[in-house]
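Standup, Tuesday
Yesterday: got the pipeline producing structure tokens again.
Today: sanity-check two examples.
Blockers: none.

Example 1:
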Amino acid sequence: MATVPAPKGLDPSASLAALYGAKLRKLRIRAGWTQRELGDKVPIAHSRIAQFELGKEVPHPKVSDRLDELLGAGGDLKDLREAIEKAPYVDWAVKYIEYEAKAIAMHKYLSQSIPGLLQIEAYAREVIGHAQPWLTAVEIDLKVAARLDRQKLLARSDPPLLWAVLDEAVLRRPVGGPAVMREQLLRVLEAARKPKVEVQVLPFSAGGHASMGGSLTMLSFKARPDVAYLEGGALGELVRDRATVARHSHWYHSVHAMALPMGPSVKLIEQLAEDYGKCAS
């Protein structure tokens, strides 16, 4: 008879998300339910319950409240969820930011938004507010301030190389309206004039490509192997396995090869900034 594999071990001290997951698993086991049974009661896919328990994903507040109610947690899951949300960065981003601060080069493909290191305040506020609509105004302020503070990296005496490939959708989606987009694109153009910032556009005409699933960042260092950071929606994953990092590096370079050269890229961004200006006036 086949044996049932033991559940993956959890380290509640690793992060708030891991603590939430350990608490959730403990309550579920105490209730005598499988992940599938709990998922059916929410209702939500049992694979999501597994992700919650492993600390790889944090449930939406309404889902967390339902889990709290079903498992008789007495508000413990709700309180943990609120603590996670009030932190300036979600757990999976904390380690990435530590790596980012030590990188000598960052190569990025952005599928949906301007990179955080180049965002203006109004644009960042729109992106964060839409991604996490349950946040209070004060919580959004804290997250915006934390994002803008990261931009000090590019003001250092010896800043890292930032090479960003922006999907054309990033430029054409009017986040915050025409006035905000005009200011944001002017900020990108200003950054692109700096020695260690390069910006290219992946046009719609390029068609399908290897990184259509989300945004990708490759970080390089002086004395350690490269790492990859995958981001999509409200999820992120830091990849350190060398073989997997190499595969993502190949995907990034294939996208980079399909992008417009820097001259035509800048001209397209200038044209769109001008178009947004006309719409805003």
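Example 2:
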Amino acid sequence: MSHASTAANSDPLLSRFQDIFDRIAAGSIARENDRTLPFEAVQWLKDSGFTSLRVPQQQGGSGVSLSQFFSLLIRLAEADSNLPQILRVNAGFTELLLERKDDADTRHWLSVIGSGQSVGAATSERTNSTTNSVVLSSDSQPDHWRLNGEKYYSTGTLYADWILVRAHDQESDLNVLVRSDAPGVQRIDDWDGFGQRLTGSGTTRFEDVLVPRAQILDRYHASQPRRNSIITTFYQTVHLATLAGIARAVQRDAVAFTQARTRTFGVPGQSSPRDNPLVHRVVGRLASLAWSSEQLVNALAGAIDKVHLARLAGHASTADYVALDIQTFQAQQIVIGQVLEATTLLFEVGGASATSDKRRLDRHWRNARTLASHNPATQREAAIGDFHLNDNAPNERFALAYA
């Protein structure tokens, strides 16, 4: 019995999804080699309730804790690291809703996700400066507007039912939701990164897309630092959980590769690399890196859970949120290095045969390197130092609703 099967048998929540994770893993190399977008796998996750794990049961979800969610996300990333990235915005949007006041709009959108529909992103742009050029303007119909503009890094949008769009009007920035199949919406698979190739992180265009008032979620000021929110930590921890899953996949593939080999470099005739002490050291190091990365993510998930529960109880402070961001940035510094080490060390268990396209072991490094590049680790390291030396909170600016 495999380690994954043993763990699934002891964890009812993992047992619920293990078969899907196994099916996703079975097709991961073929999808990578053929650049086959995982529409079927995403649908499996929607149908199973994975995309609504954090949605309260009253709105059709499972209402799991953040610790449970991130534990499952690591296992999904072990199967195929593209999938957590595809669903990252859907998960983050769910957390934004859980932080909002409990009103009709919040309950409506939670129910939308609880029904198995998912949300993708259209927030960032590939321009000469950090800006928001997508415009929401008035329409001739009362209580309707028109959306025009273009976004890039539209992660998950190819697979989503709804798109969360960062736009602006004459007053402020806005978070707007539009159907992904609405007239005037064009989703283009032109993501050209060398890793996470199947995430659909390319261009989305909006041409006179009709937006009723009910689909304008809230207003915000992008120039203001995000405060009193777990969202920065949450989005970063999705990346770290995905990296931890990659480390688990590296250990899995190293063991499978070694156990099947009957040749050892420099040893005549048949031999068993699995009995070679040097190979033992490599696999031991890989297992240690995978374990350490996962433990850091689990610890961070527990810290997020703690602040989330404090918020629900009404006594979470700004200092709590700042400390949580700092813990996240500190974990980022370690997990990135550990997983990149593992994805390179993997090739020490075999010779040139480990580089075969049929094995596609290079995907682990490419995917980890791409994930590690999403947020500047050096900038976060400087923020950590400034906090500990001068008690200055991180000053990153992102979309946070104020109304």
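Quick observation on example 2: The first helix runs from residue 3 to 10. The beta strands are 119-122, 135-138, 144-151, 162-168, 173-179, 185-188, 203-212, 216-220.
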